[in-house]
Amino acid sequence: MTVMNDEREHAGKITFQCSDQRLNDGFNWAREQAMAYAHFGEDAVGLWYEAALPARSAFCMRDVAHHSMGAAALGLAPHTLNMMLKFGKYISLTRDWCTYWEITKDDEPAEVDYADDQDFWYNLPSNFDIIFACWRQYMWTGDRTYLDHPVLQNFYDKTVTEYVKTWDKDGDGILEYYPEYGRRGLASYNEVGLQPLAGGDMVAAQIAGYRAYSHMKMLLSDPAASAHYEQLAAQLEQKYEQQWWNEETASFYGSLLQDRTYNTNHQAEANFLPLYFEAVQDLRKRTAALADMHSRGVANVEAKTYMPDIYYPYEQHEYGLQELLELVDPKLDRREYPEVSYCVVGSIATGLMGVSANGQDMITTVSRLSPHLDWAELTELPILGCTIAVKHFGYETTELCNDGQDRVLWKAVFAGEHTQLLHNGVLIPAEQEFDVNGCIRSYAVIAAGSGEHHNVSVQ
Fold first, then answer.
1. Are strands 362-366 and 408-415 parallel, antiparallel or unpaired?
2. Domain 51-352 = CATH 3.20.20.70
3. DSSP sequence for 430-450
4. CB within 8 A of 181, min separation 6: which ones?
5. If we measure between CA atoms, which residue out of 198, 129, 126 comes closest to residue 169?
6. What are the tens digits of pLDDT across the range 358-375?
7. What is the C-alpha R_g of the chain?
């Protein structure tokens, strides 16, 4: 139990403070609530956290994939890795290259979702969602287990080959669901009512999974495979942007119906998750899809947890903050759902504070505070094997302290075009790049040694 006790000792230390007390209180609640759902080896499944309906004592694929960034910020990356290995372990030909959708603390498939290998609940986007999440975990932690472990390599490979062949009956490159499948092989994460032939989130998850696997293959010195899966991602992306776009409504169709016509009704996850999966590159269509998502809102708390994770990466800071404040509101219905607390922590770290990493030696920060917040600070944030503190003052100044043992590179990013930035009181040259919306931003890369404190600001 020593290893498990070590994990418990190092988890949940992250702190957050900002100029809005509502968000401070909300973060403190989310951290404590999320840690209450974390388990440290007392169960047969090993390290795990609850990622399903409360009281099920289980974790399901979609929820783990979405919890994972918040878990990493909480120091629960070993938990996520263990659960990903469980999903990887149970992929099987007898289940048509599905794994167990939901696994209990006893390391067994949840009875509510699994009767036998011919009768079980399964949402087809999930295999690709797991690959996408594993890639993001590698980028944040730098843990090459996500690249090298044979169990995960087998899961990735079987997903992008045999899983696709098995569930893509018509050979068009997109997995399909047919009514005779029952609950096995649903083509969308939208589980209510209509069960379409294909969901927009299914296509988007495939795009994200292929692209993540392409990145992995490049790091594994297999450029030919990397190019192949990037090509598959690009082809599906083009198909989605062209064939699934409804110019009349300036929005994407949510699904392809069983009669192979597109459904013109909004389908929640099938409509907004393609934005989460980064599957829309066309700026005009993506902007319209974001506006459509905002105008419609979401119907339940599970869907609501995705909103900050969509708004912040696309630089819609005010909407992201609004969603965070609603998620931490004590009056929110079903706030105890595990996904809420984990995703609040993750969205504050990766979204509002704009922290990311490259899987090796570079940590990037960009302030997304919005005019409503004067300042915000994270401390005890585990990333790339070290611990950092980050503080933003508006959009103009960022401080970083490396509390880890190893040197890291810090890429300090600021909106706008600046030829120079001020580093610890000294002017240094700045480089320029474009953000996801094509807007110019400036940055400098600073070597941050162990124990060092750095301040970079717009001149």
1. parallel
2. no
3. -EEEE-TTS-EEEEEEEEE-T
4. none
5. 198
6. 999 999 999 999 888 999
7. 21
State residue 1's pLDDT score. Answer: 40
Residue corresponding to tokens 């079987």: 158
Question: How many Cβ atoms are within 10 Å of 404's Cβ, its own excluded?
Answer: 18
What digits encode the pLDDT tens for the residues 195-224?
A: 999 999 999 999 999 999 999 999 999 999
- The residues of the chain scoring below 50 in pLDDT are 1-3
Residue 276: other Cβ atoms inside 10 A? 20
Q: What's the full length of the chain, in residues?
A: 459
**Long-range contacts of the stretch 238-243 (C-beta < 8 A, 24+):** 239/173, 239/174, 239/203, 240/200, 240/203, 240/204, 240/207, 240/274, 240/279, 240/280, 241/280, 241/281, 241/282, 241/285
How far CA 216 is from CA of 305, 355, 387, in Å, comes to 27, 21, 25
3-state secondary structure of 394: coil
Strand pairing class (119-120; 58-60): unpaired
- The answer to whether 76 and 345 have CB atoms below 8 angstroms apart is no
**Antiparallel, parallel or unpaired: β 114-116 and 119-120:** antiparallel
Residue 26's identity, in one-letter code, is G
The residues, ordered by sequence, that sit 6+ positions from 383 with a Cβ below 8 Å of its Cβ are 72, 140, 141, 355, 357, 363
Query: Looking at the domain that runs over 365-458, which CATH code has it been given?
Result: 2.60.40.1180
Please say whether the beta carbons of 97 and 159 come within 8 A.
Answer: yes
pLDDT value at residue 404: 84
Cβ distance 418 to 402 under 8 Å? no
What is the DSSP track for 187-252?
SSS--SS---SEEHHHHHHHHHHHHHHHHHHHHTT-HHHHHHHHHHHHHHHHHHHHHSEETTTTEE
Grouping H, G, I as helix, E, B as strand and the rest as coil, residue 357 is: strand
Contact 337, 298 (CB under 8 A): no
Name the burial class of residue 259, with classes exposed (0-12), middle (13-18) and buried (19+) by CB atoms within 10 angstroms of its CB: exposed
Give the span between the Cα atoms of 128 and 232, in whole angstroms: 13
CA 56 – CA 112 distance, rounded (Å): 9
Domain locations in the chain as residue ranges: 51-352, 365-458
For the entire predicted model, the pTM comes to 0.96
Q: For Cα atoms 233, 235, 239, give the angle at the middle one, nearest 5 degrees.
A: 115
Q: Which residues pair with 15 in a beta bridge?
A: 379
H or E element that contains 291: helix 283-296
